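Q: Sequence in, structure out?
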Amino acid sequence: MNKTTSISVICLALCVGYFAGREHLKYEIRSTFNAAMQDASKHFEEGMKKAFTVTPEQKAADKKFRDDMKKVDEAFSKLSANIETQLRAIQKEAESINRP
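A: Exactly. Output:
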């Protein structure tokens, strides 16, 4: 083989190796990115499931909160009625004092 043929073969082999290496690198990056996205998607799904799943403890706490709020409403209604009664009595007393 002459020198020109040897150099041509070496250059051709380097070019083929270079482009094959680039394609392999692209494949590795693409497969790594896909694996990362699948893993992130899995973790996101698990997080959303935990965030929006109602546990029995949460249900019990919600029921207790509603019951407590009902008691507060009842107590406020009684207090409001009592205040209105007292206010009417004070108004009547004020009217009787103001009349000659």
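The CA atoms of residues 71 and 95 lie 36 Å apart.
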